[in-house]
# Entry
Amino acid sequence: MTAASMYWRDTLRGYSINHSLPLPFDRYRLSDERRTGLGISVSFDFGEDLSRAFLTYSSSNGITPEQLALASYFAFMFKLTNGECDLCIGMNTHGRYKEELMSVIGLFVNNIPLRCQLDPHWSFHQLAEHVKEIFTNSLEYSYFPLQRILAQYPNATKPVFLDTSFEFQSYASTTGKNQVMIGNARLVAAPFSIKIDEDEIMSKFDFVLTIQHDLDTDQLSCTINASLDLFDKITVDRMSQRFCSMLEQLLNINDNQMKKSIYELSLVLPDEILLMKSMNNTQVLFPSVTCIHHEFVHQVMEHPQKVAVELDDQSLTYDELLYYVQVSSLNLLNEQRVLVGDIICQCVERSISMVIGMMAIVMAGGVYCPLSPRDPEHRLHALATIACTFHLVDDLVNKKSIEIGVPLHNYRSMILDEFSKSVFVGQEGELFLGGIGVFAGYLGRDDLTSKALVDIDGEVFYRAGDLVKVDNKGLLH
# Structure
């Protein structure tokens, strides 16, 4: 037992044995809360084409169907847990590790942990080879009792792999799924869950994915059993659809997905893609935009004698204000040699002179940069130095703040994972905002600009830094 003990200790070294995988739960159960035992069971058939592609890949790459199914499960869990790279699940083994035990009647079943530390940049083929090695090595020591494995972790309250499991069942249609032959004896395996309704079950596990292989028809199917204490039925339905969609991506011979990095796999379903598109269908026609000084001149022509600006007992009409603005702007152009796009700082208290200076700068084609006389001198000097060094070439536009809910007109929102891939409905991701309100960048801080503004499909998006989810109605949370 020494070699087996050392193997399992090395396998689980550094792993947080009480760490719960971040599955897309609808509810969270407290550690001391008892489970009801109610579960939901959802199944789907691979179909002839997907079954053939699955078994063809298995035979042509020297990997068993069980190992390939396990590799697919790890890839699925990686995406389902939003990029968890250190995955540990449970798997039941028959425990007949010696040839002389194969024909002996008795209970040898043992639950073992399967730990996969994957690299998101691996191709699926690389992952499959890694899982093949894990599977082979783990089976060699599968006889080591689970109790002995857990005894090495006295502080472990509830190892996560006991609740998140994988099963692979091979059977012949003529004998049935749960019947096995040992010598001349036919045994019926007891199910790990008990059916109590059309799709409801009694189960002691949180999440179990089972792949069944009918040896007579060479067809495969999948069943997901999940606890109703943690998941809603619709969530389990969607997870089964996501797993099927992922398998179709992997085994599509026309897509060459096997050579792509596994982080590029998508669990977003077709109807969710349409939802995201409709959520960002915010385009509306705005009235033609004119510059502020053009609007100012228009007001002067319409209402020259009306009061334009007033402060305490001082006031100027539009006509008077235009006169002072023109004088100041001509001074900037002729005396200060201001060019279009130059950043012009103005350091004055709130006053009518401030309004004159602001309009004069804009009318001269400069970029208005307000400074406060109340700021410390070193800050004013630093801001003025930056302003004199850098130029803005884009027109400034008014920006609206984006509220969590739905995108405003002519804005777009995207929710991406750490690999810049779209997340599925209900999965947490980082919010990116695009559209008319995206700013040109941080003045004099290219480092901040490169972090905040990213190019996505040829469009500039602002990286908000907020973690959000989208629900099935297209609302952000």
User: Anything to note?
Assistant: The chain has three domains: 2-267, 274-284+401-477, 292-389. The domain at 2-267 is CATH 3.30.559.30 (Chloramphenicol Acetyltransferase). The CA atoms of residues 89 and 150 lie 14 Å apart. Residues 186-191, 388-403 have pLDDT under 50 and may be disordered.
